[in-house]
């Protein structure tokens, strides 16, 4: 079982013919993702050949997302286009009624994200990202840039603002495995939130426990803590990146900025612990807390 994607998901890649798109399409195909097409108006009607083992896979290129959906039945789009073109790409996918749009691009202007996020909500489309590594249900589907060989399938659900911490947590708990790991991104405005993922993991019968990784800035983790206290019955362990971050300085992610006591790692840790979440001081300690729960 998995959340948001399964082995039946039909994925198109907006920006597949670019260098990043080609590199990660090769990786996604190798990990079993059902990629049914790419989108490039200038290369419609052609195909791209991707090496897979001793052979190659030919993936058709369509002139628009609407054409790709009409001809393939695609229900997921993953976007690898430069920031200046991301808003148009997302809106095109929403207009084509793709139910799930995963936006890998970083550096998307916040005003653009606000616009296409509001549009997606109005149209009932789920966005993941921007500035995220995507999501993986090991052995079923991998949409984005998460390495597929660091962990197998299992019963842990993982939701994280950080790409690299997603990879570390998957590796540290690889002997238990994951139902789905989802990197939601660290921008000030993102499509899918911690709460959205927590709700889906709570409803997924194959997810036994949840790891939640947050970071300084904003109040997403505090809101997630309140949600956990009210709605989540499964064990949750957490980690908040940024305990040593200086106040008032943006750290890495555009959303990771602390103002006074608001948004600090300590405040988030306390809110999560008050909701019954065990919070580690380091990623490795967080993994150890999950290991204790699953080994009990």
TrEMBL record:
Annotated InterPro entries: Cit_synth/succinyl-CoA_lig_AS (IPR017440), Citrt_syn/SCS-alpha_CS (IPR033847), CoA-bd (IPR003781), CoA_lig_alpha (IPR005810), NAD(P)-bd_dom_sf (IPR036291), SUCC_ACL_C (IPR005811), Succinyl-CoA_synth-like (IPR016102)
PROSITE patterns listed in its UniProt record: SUCCINYL_COA_LIG_1, SUCCINYL_COA_LIG_2
Catalytic activity: succinate + ATP + CoA = succinyl-CoA + ADP + phosphate; GTP + succinate + CoA = succinyl-CoA + GDP + phosphate
GO cellular component terms attached to this protein's record: cytosol; succinate-CoA ligase complex (ADP-forming)
Record-listed CoA binding positions: 17-20, 43, 104-106
Active site: residue positions: 253 (tele-phosphohistidine intermediate)
Keyword flag Ligase: yes
Record-linked PANTHER family: SUCCINATE--COA LIGASE [ADP_GDP-FORMING] SUBUNIT ALPHA, MITOCHONDRIAL, SUCCINYL-COA LIGASE SUBUNIT ALPHA
HAMAP family in the cross-refs: Succ_CoA_alpha (MF_01988)
Name of the protein in its database record: Succinate--CoA ligase [ADP-forming] subunit alpha
Record organism: Flavimobilis marinus
GN (gene name): sucD
